[in-house]
Amino acid sequence: MTVDLPTVWFALTALTFTIYFFLDGFDFGVGILQPFLARSEVQRRALIGTVGPFWAANEVWVILAASVIFAAFPLWYGALLTALYPLFALILLALIGRGVAFEYRSEVDHVRWRLFWDATSFVTNLLPAFLWGVIMSNMVRGLPLGVGGRFEGHVLGAFDLFTVLGGLATLSLFVLHGATYLLLRLHRGSTLYLRARRAALLWGAAATVLVLAFVYVGFVRSGVFNSLGLSQWLFPAAAALNLGLVWLALTLRRDGLAFAATGLTVVFSTATIFLSLYPNVLPSTLGETYTLTVRNSASEPYTLRLLSWVSLIFLPLIIGYQAWNYYVFRQRVQERDQAIPGGGSGD
Amino acid sequence: MNELFGFSTLDLSRFQFATTSIFHYFFVPFTVGFALIIAVLQTLAYRSHDPKLENLTRFFGHLFFINFAVGVVTGIVQEFQFGMNWQGFSNFVGNIFGVPLALEVLMAFFLESTFLGLWWFGKDRLPAWASLASIWIVALGTTVSAFWIILANAWMQHPVGYALRNGRAVMTDAWAIVTNPKALEWFAHLWSGGLTVAAFFVLAVSAYHLRRKHNVPAFRVSFKVALLTALIGSLGVVAAGHVQGQSAVRDQPMKYAAFSALWDTPTGSQMPESLVALPSNGARANRFEVTVPYVGSFLAFNNFSGKAKGLNDLQREYAARYGPGNYLPWVWPVYWAFRVMVGLGGLMLLVSAYYTWRWRRGRLDDPGRLYPLLLVMPLAPHLANFSGWVATEMGRQPWIVQGLLRTADAVSGLTPQTVLVSLAAFWVVYLTLIGLDVFLLTRTARAGMHGPEVETPSVPAPHYLPEGAAP
């Protein structure tokens, strides 16, 4: 592996996606768990409160991921987004619905209004959690790309056993990640906390099964995880070990450890995906010559150098103030009976 | 090319791009101006320790928050659509165009979303100065964001600092791109436009409550701040617009000719300006026209003898330079959109000047006979923005990157069916969003402030009690 600018930017792309999945992953998880964990309005509001100040900034990481690919690997950007157009359109629609659901839910104090937004929130958290897995698996598996990265396949070609398993594995991982996040954010001993614990155990089991099935199918399919070389077992194995660690942490009632473990699982899974891609960024299933690689899809060195300098200054800054944001709102959220301070009018 | 109901993938993709950008742009300039007004209000509250002003800041902050949510989520679509619908464009310009977009995210989006969260939810846990700093950082973020996005757009209209390599545009001079004269003119224009969007909204809300004698001392403050913002904004829009028109004659003569429906280069010693016209692309002439002599020369060149080239001459020039083809934009929408924009800009200037005059005469609390106009004025800057984008984006067709890449060569190889389905879905979601936004804004704005207490944060109400504190 030679380290040149395109490789550095490939690694940075992977890093951006990893941070995005780590952060928005638990947002998605909390959104999906909400109808199962919360039985009353107070509980629903407590759950939303755990992600309230954070979700918007978490979501910006996906905009960064997209724009990094656009600027550093324009051919990859165009080919991927066009080839998986319907999936991205669905994700975008879901992200719109999700953001609005977070913000508008408590604007009007009316049962049906809130019911509508709760339903919207559930569906729009579920969709991206599943679809990101499908997209990542498609990226690893390769797409029918022709000359100039032109997509030659069919809309439904994005779904097969491997990619659907990838979607389900991501979904279950995010739900698990959301559950362990709640252990850190909810008042210990509250009903919600206990339910979140049970959910973590249940989804930990589901995630283990699904991730292992996904990795197995990936290895059985020739070529998918092959380019990992010597370390080909390392990351999937680490991901699986981590899931064991989650279970252990939950049994020992170590909330911090549990969250770290699910987070690391997300990190290792994303790393596996990107490592198995390298040195390609998007393999073509129609022939080697059409495959997009780190080299042939990267921007010119001038552009990459410019991006490097700017990122060197701003990425640490961003990570710094986001961390501060989490520090400011570090207290656990309480379930508390309180009248809804409805949007200015209160009726 | 494959068609659906007579629409090609190109038509539908263009329509989808316009839809996304225009919807997004209902929210963006609002944020730019509004963040600034709120930052000013909070600074006044901070310096005076006046609970009325704190309450006022919170009230407008709530309105800002309602709007910001939609701005964020529609911005994500804006970012992704370049790759989804415009693969040819991404391949051709990614080297250059992707950079300002990435810089916008790095320098602005994270700032805005993080510090708005801190400002809104952290009111009770941050010291007053940190809360004030947060809203100023949000205001800074919105401005920086506008700068980078305008820079990207300006490059498409006036490419600089590039070279063509392997059929692609690559960056050779970043400084030239950052100092693109087009970008600076447009940034001034758009930023001023952003001020007017928020200013007329705050004016309307304040006038509504002044009229009803609600919290008069507080709304008097927001009325004054908004009025000054509206005046500065309208003046800025008009001045920057004038400069832009003159540089268009030089750099995008076809667009300028379309703005004025100028088919033939004037033959006399001066250039008249068209007042009303019915342009026809089919006839390559105006079916009807009223013109004023000398005004065209003055607007385009600041003198009374300058002449711009007409559409027909430019078409011949372009065909000779770029090969046979139709280089004319669709003139009547460009011409009329331009006129609507200019007219509304003038109206905004008149209204803000009138109310400034009333203020000087000490009649601030009474919105006067123009009160109904003041209530609908928030629509004017939105409509002006909409028309401005239609004029400038349709005016540069058939080019997506002026002189380098045609829109038809930029589109992704999707089926029209795929694009139509997503277009329909986006329309449904966007119309719902606009409806919800307007509903919540009017509802919250009319409700006004309650009592002397500072407004409770309304959104997801986190109960951040320290652990163990009595509930």
TrEMBL record, chain A:
The enzyme's E.C. designation: 1.10.3.-
Transmembrane regions listed in the UniProt entry: 6-33, 54-77, 83-103, 115-135, 155-179, 200-219, 231-250, 257-278, 306-328
GO cellular component, as recorded: cytochrome complex; plasma membrane
GO MF term list: electron transfer activity; metal ion binding; oxidoreductase activity, acting on diphenols and related substances as donors, oxygen as acceptor
Subcellular location: Cell membrane
Major site of localization recorded for this protein: membrane
Enzyme class, first EC level, given as a word: oxidoreductase
GO biological processes: aerobic electron transport chain
Protein's membrane topology: Multi-pass membrane protein
Assigned keywords, A-Z: Cell membrane, Electron transport, Heme, Iron, Membrane, Metal-binding, Oxidoreductase, Transmembrane, Transmembrane helix, Transport
Superkingdom, taxonomy of origin: Bacteria
Matching NCBIfam families: cydB (TIGR00203)
Family, per entry: Belongs to the cytochrome ubiquinol oxidase subunit 2 family.
Protein name per UniProt: Cytochrome d ubiquinol oxidase subunit II
Source organism (scientific name): Deinococcus metallilatus
Automatic annotation (TrEMBL), chain B:
InterPro entries the record matches: Cyt-d_ubiquinol_oxidase_su_1 (IPR002585)
Protein keywords: Cell membrane, Electron transport, Heme, Iron, Membrane, Metal-binding, Oxidoreductase, Transmembrane, Transmembrane helix, Transport
EC number, as in UniProt: 1.10.3.-
Keyword Transport tagged: yes
Gene Ontology molecular function: electron transfer activity; heme binding; metal ion binding; oxidoreductase activity, acting on diphenols and related substances as donors, oxygen as acceptor
GO cellular component entries: cytochrome complex; plasma membrane
GO biological processes: aerobic electron transport chain
Membrane topology: Multi-pass membrane protein
Compartments, record wording: Cell membrane
Similarity comment: family membership: Belongs to the cytochrome ubiquinol oxidase subunit 1 family.
Protein name: Cytochrome d ubiquinol oxidase subunit I
Species per Swiss-Prot/TrEMBL record: Deinococcus metallilatus
